[in-house]
Every structure is written in structure tokens, then in C-alpha cells.
Amino acid sequence: MEVNFQELGFKKGYLYEILATTFSIKRNELIPNTSCMGIRIRDNNEISIEPYPNTNTYKNLKQNSLICINFVESIFLYALAALKGLHLSEKYRIFPIEYYNYYDIREYNKSISKIPYINQAWAILFCEIKKESQLTRKDIFGEINLSEFILNILSLVKIKESYKLFNRAENLTLETLILTTRLKIAFETYNSDLITYFQGKIEENVKNIRRFGKNQDALKAIELIEEYIRELKSSI
């Protein structure tokens, strides 16, 4: 399917943060999973993603090759997707089921009838894996082996018009979410220098976000981040 990404406000080659919804099937039950992911718009109307091999996103893609890319305005939903797990209260340990709807994809897939998506998204892309290749990335923790998935777009559903750009508080919150996930790795690898570095950056960002003041979505996300870090520290 041809998609005019410029009409959606996206440029080729740029990296964009989205919410990626995949699913597994256990005992004939469809179990959705949503995570924060970076996507890159490529030539030939394709999208690339690079999930870590130990994530549910990666495992689900290997199982059934289908993914929904959700374009979402709420930074709080990004926090729910990024921080889910045992370091949050039971209510938020999985991405809340009330944020899902299901789209009929029998037109494109004979074996699976529906795929989950985020009901607060302003646009969604349903995709399937076209190609997988192996690559190595280097970051602050060292070299990581990743799979790059090239996605073929099956369908675009534009639910409403949106020209929203994240404001400064929301951009800082997104950065802080990424720092928090890296802080978790620093704790797990007992890297005291990186723990000190990430905690300092997070504290500085949180102070600025609170100073900006009135963005309720960002403030709710910060509450989740602070809860997550408290539980993270107590469990190490």
C-alpha cells in the first residue's frame, strides 16, 4: 500500500518514536503487547524497526509477523508502554487493556482475523514483516546484536486529524522515559558510574518538567517514572 508520509507529517530517513502493538496467541487467546519503539521511514514506502531480541515485540514478530504502528498524542500512554513490568503497581504492570480496540485484517491475512491497536491513536499503520537482517549497534553499554525488520504496509487508518507536536515538557518526558529504561540496565549491570549519570539527568529533567507546570499528561508520566525508579532501587 502506498502511503503519503508527508501528509502525515513525517519525513523519510528520520527516526520517530511510536507505540508498537504486537500480539501473541496462547490457548487460542490473542494477548496484546504495546511498547515504545523507534521507526524509520525508508524509500519504497517501507518502515524499519529494530526491537531488542529479549522483548515481547521481537518475540511476537517472530511468531506471527504482524504489527500495528500507533501514532499517539498522549505522553502518558508512552510512559505506560515504556515502564510496564514488575517495577510498577499491579494496575500498570501490563499496558491497560481498556486502551485496546481490534481491527479486522482478514482481507490481508487468512490465519488471523484481527489485530489490536491503541484506541487513542490518531492514525494507525498495520504492517507485516517483509525482510529481516542482522546488525550490530554500539551504545553506552557496548555492542548489541539486533534484528532489523523491514515492514510492508498493509493498511493505513487515519482516525482523526492531528498536527500536534510535543511541547517542551512532553519532549523532556520522552527523553526521561528513555533514560529510565537505561537506568534499569545500569542497575542490572551494576554500573555505578552510569547509575549516577542517569539518575542525575533524570532528576534534572523531572525538576524542569515540574517547573513547566500545567501539562497533566507529562506530570502523570513523571509520577510513573518516580514510582518505577523507587521500586527499581528497592529490588536491586
Structure description:
With 236 residues, this protein is an alpha+beta fold. Helices cover 36% and strands 35% of the residues. It contains 6 helices and 8 strands. Strand 7 (121-139) and strand 8 form a beta hairpin. Helix 3 (75-83) runs parallel beside helix 4, helix 3 packs parallel to helix 6 and helix 4 runs parallel beside helix 6 (216-235).
Short précis:
By secondary structure, the chain is α+β, with helices and mostly antiparallel strands. The chain has helices at 5-8, 56-64, 75-83, 168-188, 192-212, 216-235; strands spanning 15-26, 29-41, 46-49, 66-72, 100-104, 114-118, 121-139, 142-158.
Which features characterize this protein?
alpha+beta; single chain; 8 strands; two-stranded antiparallel sheet; 36% helix
Produce the secondary structure layout.
Layout: H1 5-8, E1 15-26, E2 29-41, E3 46-49, H2 56-64, E4 66-72, H3 75-83, E5 100-104, E6 114-118, E7 121-139, E8 142-158, H4 168-188, H5 192-212, H6 216-235
Antiparallel strand pairs: 1-2, 1-4, 2-3, 3-8, 4-7, 5-6, 7-8
- Biggest beta sheet summary: 6 strands, antiparallel, barrel
What percentage of amino acids are in beta strands? Answer: 25-35%
Look at the helices and sheets and give the structural class: alpha+beta
| Mean pLDDT across all amino acids | 90
Net shape: globular
What is the element string, with H for helices and E for strands?
A: HEEEHEHEEEEHHH
Q: How many beta-strand runs?
A: 8
Low-confidence stretches: none
* Helical percentage: 25-40%
Count of helical stretches: 6
- The separation of the N and C termini measures 47 Å
Strands side by side in the biggest sheet? 1-2-3-8-7-4
CA gyration radius, whole angstroms: 18 Å
- What does the oligomeric state look like here? single chain
